[in-house]
Every structure is written in structure tokens, then in C-alpha cells.
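chain below, 357 aa
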Amino acid sequence: MKIAVVPGDGIGQEVVPATLPALTMLSEAFGLDITYDVFDWGADQWLATGTGLPPGATDRLSRDYGAVYLGALGDPRIPDMAHGRDILLGLRRGLDLYVNHRPVVLEHGVIDLYRENTQGLYSGVGGSISRSGAVTVAIDECLYTRETVEGFVRYCLGRLREAGRRKVTLVHKSNAVPNTGRLWQDVFRRELEAFPELVGSEEYVDSFCYNLVRDPTPYEGVLASNLFGDIISDIGAALMGGLGLASSASICPETRFALFEPVHGSAPDIAGKGTANPYAAAMSLVMMFDHFGHGAAADLLRACVRKTAGSEAATPDLGGAGSTRGFMDNVMTLLGHELSARAGTAVARGPLTAGER
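prediction:
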């Protein structure tokens, strides 16, 4: 499988290159034959050519690649984030990546947060009226189709069942936003009938956020619309310890094409200092391995990244004094030791018997 790597802007250009050696090492160790090409889509290209996502990019990606690994987008030279919207929203819509999975990893366990990723208030439907240079009327429409909501809910419930979850919560605001809210409620209740293993509940988004901050332990799976999921995921990141720990996957269930990226932004205030935390970027690679069925590689990388986060090699936001490169160097050392130990064990045991094979 071939991966399209887009470091992007700011610290994306630091954390993504730092994690790629781990991708290569695990691919070789587990015989996965994963390769990658690097694309310079970002602020520099936008400023030089006026191009964000090149023409035909999504067709090429869907034809020649299995996934995108994205760093971060955002540059103070482009304050309206025009290039970021062009690239990221172009990828999400052009590749139909309508399921966004953002796991919230806490001491008591994992909350699987699923956010619809292409519609809602992020559909781009609306406009504005200006007078004398000032906006006097502004409209952003919240648009949802039943087809998308059904596909999203059905896929997420299936994934939660596969993960052994027992509870799932729909987050909405149907009391104030009745039309799309009731669509979500109707689809959720109907689709849930096919998943008797799951106990469903519903909460208004304001109440849910309050409860999540007070006590996250009752939640296992959470389904939310685009805007609500975007907000909730940052609350989840704060509960985890910061945006530097939050990873994500944007998925098209029908094609299995996916985009993996850390949730954090480009952080221009620390870009170039070498202290950006690569944890979320590395965990996005863990999600990539998991998504494509390479569980052993995912588990090994996950363990080494978590161990490094609790060591002296941790970056300053985790209480350490390490650097981006130093963090991943430590991960690579741990991976090397573990892979060598496993190889030694295999040699010591001798060839596998027919039954073991």
C-alpha cells in the first residue's frame, strides 16, 4: 500500500518527518510493504501559486494511494485559512471521508468519539450581504441528508460493537435546532434496533459537555454532528492532557480510504523550535495500522509511544525536557529492542510446527 504524506505547515513539518522512520521500520519488520510519497501542499505552495489542493488530486489519491497522512495546516501569513479550507475540506468532501474517529484515551479507558465530517454547518452553504464594507447579513446553513446520517450512524454502531462497547450516546440539540436534530434522532433510534448489544442514550450538547467534564467515565461511544463533534473532541483532548495527545482518522466506509492526522494545529508560536510533541502524529500512525488490519504493528508502536511519553524524552508539554526528534529517537530505540527480542525468541524456539503455522 502507498501513503500520501502531507506535512503541511508549522509543526506539521516537524512531527510528520520525525515519525516516518517508525512507519518504515514497522512496515519492514512486519512485511507490510507500505511506501509513501511526500506532497508539499500547504501555505508555501498557496502563496507561491495560489493553489491549495491541486486539480485532480482526489482522483489521483483514490486511484494510486490507500491513505493520506497529514500533519497540520495553518499559517499566520494566510489569516483567513483559505488554503487550509481548500486542502482539508477538499480532501474530506472529494474523498467522501464522512466519518471522523477521534478516540479520547483516559485512565479509565477509551471513549470512541465519532464526528460526522462533511455536512452540517461545515457544508459551505450560505452567504452574506455587505454595505459600505461591513457585513450586515450573514447566513450559514446547517444541511444534512438522510443518506449521509444513516451511513455514518450505521458504520459507527458497527465499529463500536466490534470494539466491544456496550453504551453509545447521541449528542444533538433538537430542542433548539429541530429539523436536523430530529433527523439525527430518528436515524439513530432506527439504526440502533439492529444492534441489540448496544444500549443507546441521547443528550443535548450543552448538557453532554458539562457531564463530560465533570465525569467522563459513563461514556463509551459518542456520535455527534460535525460542529458538535469538533467542539467535543477538543474537550476530550483537554481531558487527555492536551491537543498534543489527540489523534484522528477520517474514513470513507465504502472505499476504506482514510486520512490520518493529529488533532492539533500548526502551532506557529513553537514552529521551528524542535519542541513540538509528536505523540498525536505517531498515534495517528497507530490508527492507520489498526484501520488496515495490522494490529500487531499498531500495538507495538502504541506501547513504545506511551512509554516514551512517560520518560525523560517526553516533550515540555508533557513535563519533560525532550525534543521532537529526541522523542521519536527514543521510540525507535524501544521499537528496535522489542523487535530484536521478538526475533531472538523466534530463533530460540526454532521453526514453527505445521500446527503453529
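Residues 106-240 form a domain with the Isopropylmalate Dehydrogenase fold (CATH 3.40.718.10). The radius of gyration is 21 Å.
thats it, cya
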